[in-house]
Design goal:
Strand content: 35-45%
Number of strands: 10
Order of helices and strands: EEEEHEEHEHEEHE
Low-confidence stretches: 1-39
Radius of gyration: 26 Å
Mean pLDDT: 80
Shape: elongated
Structural class: alpha+beta
Number of helices: 4
Length: about 250
């Protein structure tokens, strides 16, 4: 019998997790099932995606302590003192110490080229950046204020995200939706090609998109100027992509 193969390459749209995870992060990709080709070689292959939307259950506040001076040791000591003050204040507020993580640390001396081609050394600039995980998303603004009022002098933004447990649960739901979409597309192709689907031949989970919903620093600054930082969250979307091949027979 003449072999017929219908192939649909549908690019799964990278649906965002409007809460940006930070992009980004991949969950559980890889082959889910496999089998032998149908005896007569008829098959339909499709790519599809599925998504699930939910409210975030975590927020990540990004702040930094910075300092400048003519001596690197003095810069380091100043930052250390202010970091201790900030961490103590956050702990008193209710943020566990393990939820305050160093994201970046650097002390460097500014350098500038002179008209004569030499190098002029300037002050030392230090930065100690942190990511603060907040379990109560409604408290993100208060955590920003607590950090800024107790040593931090730079706010880099807030991301609304999902806990690992909730993210995995949503991913499973997104996979189910993706498989439903794949079957619908395969049936449409099969009908157009005078084929009938029989059973699933292979399933591959190709990609998962997750991006946290980002609150820009400018928006935070405007809220703080009004007498307190109010941060509004947005929904989170997890998207799963699958590639499925179905065995088929001539209708």
């Amino acid at each position: 019998m003449r072999q017929q193969t219908l192939l649909l390459a549908v690019l799964g749209t990278a649906l965002l997790v409007t809460a940006g995870v930070a992009g980004a992060l991949t969950l559980g990709s890889g082959a889910a099932a496999a089998g032998e080709a149908a005896p007569d070689g008829q098959s339909v292959t499709v790519s599809a995606d599925g998504s699930v939307e939910a409210e975030p259950d975590q927020a990540v506040v990004r702040v930094a302590v910075t300092a400048t001076g003519n001596d690197s040791s003095a810069v380091r000591d100043e930052m250390a003192a202010r970091v201790d003050e900030m961490q103590s204040a956050l702990e008193s507020y209710g943020v566990p110490a393990e939820n305050v993580r160093t994201a970046y640390f650097d002390i460097r001396q500014e350098r500038e080229r002179t008209p004569s081609g030499g190098v002029e050394r300037g002050q030392y600039v230090g930065t100690h950046a942190f990511e603060i995980t907040v379990e109560d998303t409604d408290a993100a603004g208060e955590v920003v204020d607590t950090a800024v009022n107790n040593g931090a002098d730079q706010v880099d933004g807030v991301s609304f995200t999902l806990s690992e447990e909730k993210r995995e649960a949503l991913y499973q739901d997104a996979l189910t939706n993706a498989m439903g979409n794949a079957e619908t597309r395969a049936e449409t192709l099969a009908d157009a090609g005078d084929l009938s689907l029989t059973e699933t031949h292979t399933i591959v989970s190709t990609n998962t998109n997750y991006r946290a919903y980002q609150v820009e620093t400018a928006a935070l600054g405007g809220a703080a100027a009004a007498g307190g930082t109010a941060v509004e969250s947005g929904p989170v979307t997890v998207t799963a992509d699958v590639r499925v091949t179905y065995n088929a027979t001539v209708a």
